[in-house]
Amino acid sequence: CLILSFFSRGKLGRYPPWPGKIVNPPKDLKKPRGKKCFFVKFFGTEDHAWIKVEQLKPYHPHKEEMIKINKGKRFQQAVDAVEEFLRKAKGRDQASSHNSNEEKNRHNSNEERGKQSAGEEKRKANLPEGKLKKGTGEGKKRVSSVSSERGSKSPLKRAQDQSPRKRGRPPKDEKDLTIPESSTVKRVMTGTVAGFKWPPSVSEPVKDSDPHFHHFLLSQTEKPAVCYQAITKKLKVCEEETGSTSIQAADSTAVNGSITPTDKKIGFLGLGLMGSGIVSNLLKMGHTVTVWNRTAEKCDLFIQEGARLGRTPAEVVSTCDITFACVSDPKAAKDLVLGPSGVLQGIRPGKCYVDMSTVDADTVTELAQVIVSRGGRFLEAPVSGNQQLSNDGMLVILAAGDRGLYEDCSSCFQAMGKTSFFLGEVGNAAKMMLIVNMVQGSFMATIAEGLTLAQVTGQSQQTLLDILNQGQLASIFLDQKCQNILQGNFKPDFYLKYIQKDLRLAIALGDSVNHPTPMAAAANEVYKRAKALDQSDNDMSAVYRAYIH
């Protein structure tokens, strides 16, 4: 029975479909509390997850529909893997059926021989003694001949050896279908789930599973590289050689809901592309959240989901224990804190402020000083990711500042991200975030440059993407951005104007320490041209248009 799951995340996001196979979970892995679910390994990836029963639908009736919706090459490869698995399974079933028929024929033959033997014994009993000895000798000779033809095993033993295997035990040739364990999960699980080992028969079907679900399903996990998705949301804290600390999660907590939310009141300021997904996940994981946004209408959806409404930033800070903010740039970050009815007016001793905006180190240092001067606690925590990762609770959080506040934010960071890093003193996270986005923005410009060069030299852009996806550069980012360009779909997942802002700030960071950034400077000029072509509010992949105009 093939299955398709539709795992959606409310009104703010949805995982794409993905084919997988129900298997036995590792013995040391606890099943999530709540509704019935199955442990799944996904075809074409190294990922795995607990999937709830109500998120599953029959696979065959929906297969064509899902293929039309998801045009990605990796998804098609995963579907091909399912079909190959089915062909092998069908072959094994036919072989098993053939063996079963042969066994039935042998059994009938044995019964016939048994009847003949019984008749022979009855005949012997009626013979005179002399003839009986002669007959017995002939009988022994005949039985010996039959025995030598069949080998040394008894009929019962042979029947056991040749009978179909018990349910739940795949034949030996199925071992090549086992999906390998993710190296990411291996690394993560050495902490909290020490001693974690896959059982030898990890590809076995779940013995006690609902008969409607059998081996296959389509799960709504993200594509391979993102995923690092799903086992448990247990965290580990590990000290790295650099002195930074990271909190790492094995999956998106929104998948299994295993977070224990903090009892502190949470405030959130700014409901843009990133902030919307973050707040949604905080609410889903049971946090008490008060929201504010410059455009008040954006708050309505979250009020419906259980959030409270704050009239001003100052009011949110004064009524909450920890207030997060995520706005567009340094000016917006300063205005939010220092402006009329701003954050600073609500700060008093013990109040906590976490700025998740991507800004420069000087800006975040200035904000930290004014917050702390009022007795408040400050943490910077910019996030690496995009709208989809924000919706999926799979962001990477880079934090610096008050270490105690970082730990107090643990359940919030678990809800919104897959990993968080503590990088030390205020300013370090801002610098690291700008470097990360500098690399990402430069890479995006190079992708656009390569696609346009392929076009003007008469090469297929799709073939170029296929080649890149088979090489060392293969990634979800590469595939998604190239698909945007090929389809002419530049709906924003990460605004072009913001990646250009980050490139500008990264170049300034290099200038401040007299470090050359010629690649970033070149990429920045291309984004500036794209902005001049009115691409600011499109996705960063719209930088492609700077090359074709």
UniProtKB/TrEMBL annotation:
One cellular component term from this protein's GO annotations in UniProt: chromatin
Family: Belongs to the HIBADH-related family. NP60 subfamily.
Cited InterPro entries: 6-PGluconate_DH-like_C_sf (IPR008927), 6PGD_dom2 (IPR013328), 6PGDH_NADP-bd (IPR006115), GLYR1_PWWP (IPR035501), HIBADH-like_NADP-bd (IPR029154), HIBADH-related_NP60_sf (IPR051265), NAD(P)-bd_dom_sf (IPR036291), PWWP_dom (IPR000313)
Keyword Flavoprotein attributed: no
Protein localization: Chromosome
SUPFAM superfamilies the UniProt entry points to: 6-phosphogluconate dehydrogenase C-terminal domain-like (SSF48179), NAD(P)-binding Rossmann-fold domains (SSF51735), Tudor/PWWP/MBT (SSF63748)
PANTHER family: CYTOKINE-LIKE NUCLEAR FACTOR N-PAC, OXIDOREDUCTASE GLYR1-RELATED
Protein name according to UniProt: Cytokine-like nuclear factor N-PAC
Chain intervals for the UniProt region annotation (Disordered): 89-184
GO molecular function: DNA binding; NAD binding; NADP binding; nucleosome binding
Organism expressing this protein natively: Eolophus roseicapilla
A Pfam family: PWWP
Keywords: Chromosome
UniProt main location, coarse: nucleus
Basic and acidic residues bias locations: 89-141, 158-178
